[in-house]
Amino acid sequence: MSWEHFILFAIAALICWGLGAFIAWRGKKTGWAYGFTILGLAIFFSFIVGFWLSLERPPMRTMGETRLWYSFFLPLAGLITYSRWKYKWILSFSFILSLVFICINIFKPEIHNKTLMPALQSPWFPPHVIVYMFAYAMLGAATVMAVYLLWFKKKTIERNEMDLCDNLTYVGLAFMTLGMLTGAVWAKEAWGHYWAWDPKETWAAATWFAYLIYIHFRLGKPLQVRPALIILLVSFVLLQMCVYALIIYHLHRESVYILIT
Length: 261
Fold this sequence. Notes:
With 261 residues, the protein is an all-alpha fold. It has eight helices and no strands.
């Protein structure tokens, strides 16, 4: 399966996710919302698997390939959140974000080939990236909820709404921690050390501590919700710096490898 097939699978998946989001927003026949969302996930994931097989490597090397995983995990995170807390807007949010990433991939295609630098051939590379993508999706959903509560919520912030931010952060931080651990093992295998304090690792540590501060603040001062939400937004800004540092770092690594070979 080649990249030319992407648009067909993407349109089919988006139609399913859009229908699921619309049904969830209407608040009727929630079983259909689950069904369409899961069907869209299955369609999109089938492309990822087929593309993986055709490349003979994990589709995680280029930014376009990384956006594939964002496009997949955002609806998945939305479905998990919807099934647990029944917020009817969450599937619409995940659908719109996935649409953005998919449109970027459609209108700005990249060159995809089978070459993969030696460091990325480690068996720890795929689980590290996949776990991180899911963590980003969950923490992104928590941030959207925080923005809604801070600037669009006209009434008093209810406890169950803060519980949603807390639970999304718990899950996101747990997966981020797992991603850091798998990344450390991967780094040890690829470069001979678990941690080197390079930009991506430094920002990852800062982000991890920021979300940990949010959790401890919520546990220690549960009634002070607005300062907690501000901490959550700052944490997400640090997360963006972590993403940018990761992109620059891997582009540098790959360019050095190309020059050497």
